Amino acid sequence: MEEQRLITLENIHKEYDGVTVLDNINLYIRKKEFVTLLGPSGCGKTTTLRIIGGFENADSGRVIFDGHDISGIPPYKRRVNTVFQKYALFPHLNVKDNIAFGLKLKKIPKDEIARRVDYMLDLVNLKGFGKRSVDSLSGGQQQRIAIARALVNEPEVLLLDEPLGALDLKLRKGMQLELKSMQQRLGITFLYVTHDQEEALTMSDTIVVMNGGKILQIGTPKSIYDEPNNAFVANFIGESNIFPGIMVHDELAHFCGGDFPCVDSGFGEDQPVDVVIRPEDVLLVGEDVGQVTGVIKSVLFKGVHYEMMIDAGHSTWKVHSTTMQPEGSRVGLAVVPFNIHIMHPMENAQPREEEAQ
Amino acid sequence: MKTIKRIYLGLILLFLYIPIAVLIIQSFNAGESRAKWEGFSFIWYGKLFEDPNIMNALWITVSIAVLAALFSTILGTLAAIGIHAMRKRPQALMLTLNNIPMTMPDIVTGISLMLLFIFTKVERGYVTMLLAHITFDVPYVILSVMPKLQQMNKNSYEAALDLGATPMYALFHVILPEVMPGVITGAMLAFTLSLDDFTISYFTTSPLVQNLSTLIYSQARKGIKPTMNALSALMFVVLLVLLLLVNKRTDKQEQ
What we know:
The structure holds 2 protein chains of 2 kinds. Chain A has 2 domains: about 1-225, 3-Layer(aba) Sandwich (Rossmann fold); about 240-345, CATH 2.40.50.140. Chain A is built from 8 helices and 20 strands. Chain A has helices spanning about 45-55, 95-105, 110-125, 140-150, 170-185, 195-205, 220-225, 230-235; strands at about 5-15, 20-30, 35-40, 60-65, 70, 80-85, 155-160, 190-195, 205-210, 215-220, 240-250, 250-255, 260, 270-275, 285, 290-300, 305-310, 315-320, 330-335, 340-345. Chain A is elongated, with a radius of gyration of 24 Å. Chain B is mainly α. Chain B is about 80% helix and about 0% strand. The radius of gyration of chain B is 22 Å and the shape is globular. The chains are: A alpha+beta, B mainly alpha. At the A-B interface, β6 and α2 of A face α7 and α8 of B.
């Protein structure tokens, strides 16, 4: 499987003015994979991208590209292209010349340049915009031109730095789907940076969750959502109830004053653990049949569901439900074993698991 | 109240422009006397262009202004790009260092340059005057290019490298085209400043190499000839037009 790895980061370390921004980053990216670096601002995701693009150099560690160490090689000699957060189109060139910029540098014949530029304009649904000035385009159109300008060079990897960050919600959703389908059609490896967890879940084959310059978890969107490694990941990806608890023995956890059968094992007996329960997985049942009971403190209408905060003595539960219970009423809470996720408290990053080998 | 405001403003403008108006009117006076109007005439303008001293000074003034503008624009633009790429603290330091010479009185700049040339045993003349003009022009060029660099998308240069451009190619095909309006404004400003400089030129040239303003000064000490009126009037008009052009450009860029 080794030859499938297009990019490998080995022990990347980076500091700015004595502050560590990347702490021992190890990561590999397979050919044709859509990998997303996800984390809050300042977590090091953009710096990681810039190191792969060649705009920054790591203080230590290696960047392996297609079997060769490319650390220290300038950006214009790397077979990657970047879509920048604020487009960075060249305002003195028209749309066509922006897209043709990289091809002209490669001394490609004029008629082929014209052909490939037209193909790209078609691909990003901006046929006939070639002669327009970039300032006359909307944000979404500029973003498409930036993507076309990068893709026309047929890079092996496309680096995207929060490319949809400046677009409004509806446009963003549309572009997410377009980008994903473009990636699948062209068979290009995408490395995508975002702080938007929903975006990451929608588009990625693999999500890399980062915080504080460290990788916290690497996995498929589903595995990261269903089985977060620690409280940070659980909180960052979707909404969660996180409770401190005790693993009584395999498949039985005790938290919030109740015993909950679960499906996790291997944590030992009477060990402290963190328990994650998604708000949509909490069932509201009769007071007498709940695993714990509580009083509804607040009800918020969220469109698809109601969000209720329930006070259960020493803990507060966030519950999403399509049926509303009046404020102040006593309810029972229940969770099916499969929906209880047990984590080691404050667990650190685990190496990426080889799936299905 | 409104009339008082208008009269006040009128008075200020009157005091500001009366000397220049007198000068311009005098330059059309047919007689040599400054006290008596002897009819309208272009005679002094004609004489102006027959005087070899004045024509020589005009050539020196214009050639120095062109060369000073050219060199200071190249130096200043490259310096601005370099300063822009610095980190915050050294950048602030460099901009302060850049501003100090502009606030310094011309006479201090002039005398210090003169002392430098004497100290280094460089004979004063055309070259020293040119060097002095380049020196006082550079900060102004930096100051007019800087805002354009700051307006530029900070990823533009990186985007060019990313698409395969060498740093040199990116400089000429991405950065320079984007900051060109600021570069042109800087060049025009440098040209104008060089054209109308007296003090610094006076201290950095020899009596044998005179530009227009030092020539006017040395002639005026012997008593003002009417040709000097015509020359001053011409310089005023040329500088006025240049300044209007520079101001118009800066206004447009700020929009």
